[in-house]
């Protein structure tokens, strides 16, 4: 079984959805950059090492990411999964984990990279919004797209109601992306992901 390390900063609902999905993987550790991240509790409950590297204790982003990479290496990871990890990673860190570093982002990339995606989607008047799982490259919220799911934007949506509708889909597609990775079904070529699965389209629409 492949070993997965999860990085998170907060609530951890995506981490929980991975834990609940019965994936053919071993969770080697959950690592938070915030000591009080609620999501670490899901690891503790299941006897998975729950580690904290407090970014405030490091003089630079580079020093922090260097230690983070060393910690991941000491635990041993075939795949590093960002699940609400709210820190920008250095280019060095990203390149070191190229092709085995995944993120989930709450928009249909390449639309709305960055923060406040739901409020921005409402402000733009888009009628369809959603979420994306992608491999991480040095450009923020960029990189080969693995899977997406779309939801309608309703006329009375607030950022919170829209976020809740999208989050439900996040919990559906992230486990699927990790499953595909574990099964060796994701092939990156020319900067795009090819999924070796006949049923890919069933995941796209909520
Ligand atoms: C999710 O919306 C995810 O897409 C974004 O941050 C949020 C994390 O939520 N990257 P949770 O911590 O997984 O509950």
Rg computed from alpha carbons, rounded to a whole number of angstroms: 16 Å
Major β-sheet profile: 7 strands, mixed
CATH class category label of the largest domain: Alpha Beta
Average pLDDT confidence is 96
Q: How much helical structure, as a percent, in the residues?
A: 25-40%
Named at the architecture level, the CATH assignment of the largest domain is 3-Layer(aba) Sandwich
Total separate domains: 2
Strand tally, please? 9
Name the hetero compounds present: 5-O-phosphono-beta-D-ribofuranosylamine
CATH topology of the largest domain: Rossmann fold
Brief sketch in words of this structure:
The protein contains six helices and nine strands. With 206 residues, it is α/β, with parallel strands linked by helices.
List keywords for this structure.
binds 5-O-phosphono-beta-D-ribofuranosylamine, Rossmann fold, 206 residues, alpha/beta, two-stranded antiparallel sheet, 6 helices, 9 strands, seven-stranded mixed β-sheet, single chain
Task: Please render the helix and strand layout as text.
Layout: E1 2-8, H1 13-19, E2 25-32, H2 40-45, E3 50-52, H3 61-75, E4 79-82, H4 91-96, E5 101-105, H5 117-124, E6 128-135, E7 145-152, H6 159-182, E8 186-189, E9 192-195
The protein binds 5-O-phosphono-beta-D-ribofuranosylamine.
The site of 5-O-phosphono-beta-D-ribofuranosylamine has 14 residues, from helix 1, strand 5 and helix 6.
